[in-house]
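Reviewers asked in the last cycle whether our approach scales beyond single polypeptides. To address this, we selected a multi-component target totalling 1067 residues and predicted its structure end to end. The input consisted of the following lines:
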Amino acid sequence: MKKLLALLLAMIMVMGLAACGQKAEDTPPADDQQQGDTQTPEAPAEPAAGGEITLWTYPIGDWGKEDKVKAITDAFTADTGISVKVEYLAYADGDDKVNSAITAKNAPDLIMEGPERLVTNWGDKGYLVDLSDMFDDTDKSEINAAAMAACTHPNGSVYEYPLVITAHCMAINLDAFKEAGADEFLNLDTHTWTTSDFINAVEALYDHFQAPVGAVYCKGQGGDQGTRALVNNLYGGTFATASHDEYTWDDPANIKALEQLKSMPGIAFDASLEGGDEIKVFYQGILKMAFCWNIAQQLNPNQADTGAGKTANGEEIVFMGFPSQGGSPALQGGIWGFGIFDNGDEARVNDAKTFIKWMCDSEHTVDAVKTANYFAARSAAEGTDLSGIWADNEIMNEYQVLMPYLGDYYQVTKGWAGARTEWWTMLQKVGEGADIAETVATYAANAAAAAAAG
Amino acid sequence: MARQSQPTMSRALQRRENISGYLFLLPSLIFFIGFVVIPMIICIVTSLTDANMHDQGMFGNFIGFSNFTKLMSDETFLEALKNTFIIVIVSVPTVCAFSLWVSSAIYKLSGPVLSAFRCIFYLPVVTGSVAVTVVWKWMYDNYTGIFNHVLKGAGIIEQNINWLGDSKYALWCIILILFTTSVGQPIVLYVSALGNVDQTLIEAAEVDGANGFQVFWKVKWAQMMPTTLYILVITTINSFQCFALIQLLTKGGAGTNTVMYHIYWTAFKLTEQAGHFGYANAMGVVLAIFIGLLSALQFKLAKEK
Amino acid sequence: MKIETGRGRAYKIVSVIVLVILAFLFTFPLYWIVTGAFKNGADINATKPIWVPTEWVMNNFDKLMKQRSVPLWEVYLPFGSFFNGGKKVLLTAGPEAPAAIRWLINAVLMCVLAMLLTCLTAAMAGYALAKKRFNGRALLFSLIVCAMALPKQVILIPLLKEMSALHLYDSLWAVIFPTVGWPFGVFLMKQFSESIPGEILEAARIDGSSEWNTFSTVVMPMIKPGIGALAIFTFINCWNDYFMQLVMLASGSNFTIPLGIATLQAETSVDNGLLMAGATLAAAPIIIVFLIFQKYFTQGITMGAVKG
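The resulting structure, written as structure tokens, was:
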């Protein structure tokens, strides 16, 4: 027994020695370290015919669920012989993971997210491959112009191939609204309401439930589009200029909105929640409205598979546009698609491009879009019409009423990642009772500095 | 201690001691130098450069001490440094005092009861930091946590307290968790130290008319000094290992940022400042200097005893 | 002992009551984890805490097992990527299994390897530091003492780059090696070895015993309790080193159970029942290890400190 143990230790030691002995050597690039990993463990030693690529995806609709993603990547592998190894990132720490992988020269081949990360950050820093050769004139005419613009870097390179788009909105607990008599403030046909409707409704709800009914969550960046859209829309403020080179959130309309929200007892500024946490609390029926909402949530609240549009105790969830003075909000868009990390291996870049082509511009695009639970970013793909793919889905059809309100995709403004950090840090300070005008000025200035430096 | 080696060791003997000493040390040194010392040296060197994630190569351009001067005016960093010290300064003495009290209350209990108590106080350590963190997060929860429920039920608070979201409470909530995961080992140590105190000395003191407090202070406390110092060392180490708590509970928000977390943040979070490795390493160097001083102080105390 | 005064007895009663309350508070988080793991959805999502589950269900564990699937095991040739153009050399892989099981295997494997390596290297180094009068001993010891309290965040970036250069990034070794390098074990073992009487070593030498023989047959048995303590210590520390796991492990098949649970928590969709089921799995092995080695631990750790 002891001898065995000693032998084992000796073996491990030798390995350890080898580690140090080779340190000085000129090491080959570690880029393709993961290539040895095989998708089909039944035949581990056999290399797949068409190479292997890795895909890291954020939870974009059901692109964060293994069974759904596996179905579509298996189909892709069967079709092309290229196997795909998928890793699932969370919004809470996904960015750190990607950044540490880049530092360790171990970035994935494919990444699925929106332009605010792919174009403004990783693309801008030169980690991604320019995809502009994948778009011909037909593609450009089919793809939603705003999405195409957002995916294009100011230097002309396209760092993201858009797959799906949506408009972010908010949601309310209709049963709670009815119970508190606040449903009179809702227009359930247009799914919109005015600022005064919203204020009255929150007041009625608070009077009835005697606890905060909505939370301006500000723990981190997760779901921060919701708090921005809420503040911007209340009195018609903006977040950045239309030309995307400067931040405008020290706009008096935004300050007024923050003061209004802070003065409402029914609205809590909560630094212990992020977007995802807020949805959970809403889903539990504690909060009566959620600001971090979109159609994928409506179809499957909290990804809990407990039925579309229902809370945990079966109360009805209704999606609403953000309240604005005239009742016509500017909704924050969501654009998601694929980017390719430049790992210096031509063959894998080509495989990754094959993957994108298969997912975003072929007859299979329907499935890829449906997996995401959002709307297609293009009208048609290689002859397949995509406009009617949700025709049989009542909720999706109803949601179409909000799509015209899709506002500017300002997340591609320079210095975005720094600015959004300033935004939620500012909300924390406001929540703690700091002077609003002053706080907004300080943090907006920080964001402006980030934009100038970025 | 009886030792054969005299100051005037013969040269041959010295060489033999050198060879055998270093051969025994070799395996350990490979790991220590390879994965602690070398990274630390690289850390110090890069802290003087503008190395960052986006340039290839380990080192950027030499920029002297400007990372450090920038740190001195970086409010986020200074706040993190302050919080780090609050955590250490609060948790180390409380852990020591608390475990001493618990141990003196339990060390005379009968065997099984004593074991049971020791195990109970050790439980949070062996539950594992991540498991402990997720359950405390739930317990602290603003809306569904049991703390708010119990306190409200008892009529102590009227409105829910947002434990982890309010900068009045968040840091203390984290210190509390750290506290529960730190007292286990000190209690084990103090229990045996108290059991090992020389009974004859106590009796002698009592004969001389010393009261309970004097007996404790002059005899027991003095004899437990080595244990106390050891406990100070391990508790300090423990207090610097609170990364998981911060990352999983508050992400450095609500006034809970620490230097340890801020280094990670500066290195890898997706902001424009991120990936500035030189700057992050400079923070590491500042932290290492403080820790080095603290350790030196503790060991100086230990030497004097 | 003196005769108990009234005040003394009152103090005793109060302290027993306080102790019992404290014992309750210290056990509660674990109770909450375990009951949470077996609660049904309604109990978990209830706005008022449910102290005892209305029914005990396995739902949460089922859900946990369905989260992801990865090969049950994958054995790579260590440093194989150096000889294979940067690609890892996969020796064998197991059948697809729930990721949580793999994470559990990974975590145990990682901690056991770190534990074995640390105990051996630290016992040797501690003995040398305590009993050998070689040049540079004092300097080395001060270096070890200073590095002991160093949080790993300080050397995060160089370490990550080093692991990448060694092709160890995204493997358990990237967590194991720095754990072994952490000099606390050496410090602890030095404290133990101080108590070995010099005469015994001298006698062994006169008998013609080689250095290694002296170490393995004379020294090792004497510091056994210390090694026991160090073993459990390293196991717990490695298990709890969430930070290194977070930074060094990238793919889902290489996660450890604590990292996996933290990742589940990070995902927006997660519910507390699922998390508590994961936490139960994450807590069970280390509690078991603690209970097995408990005797050694109390003995060993105390000796080291008191002798120090």
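The CA atoms of residues 186 and 231 of chain B lie 6 Å apart. We regard this as preliminary and will revisit it once experimental data from Aim 1 are available.
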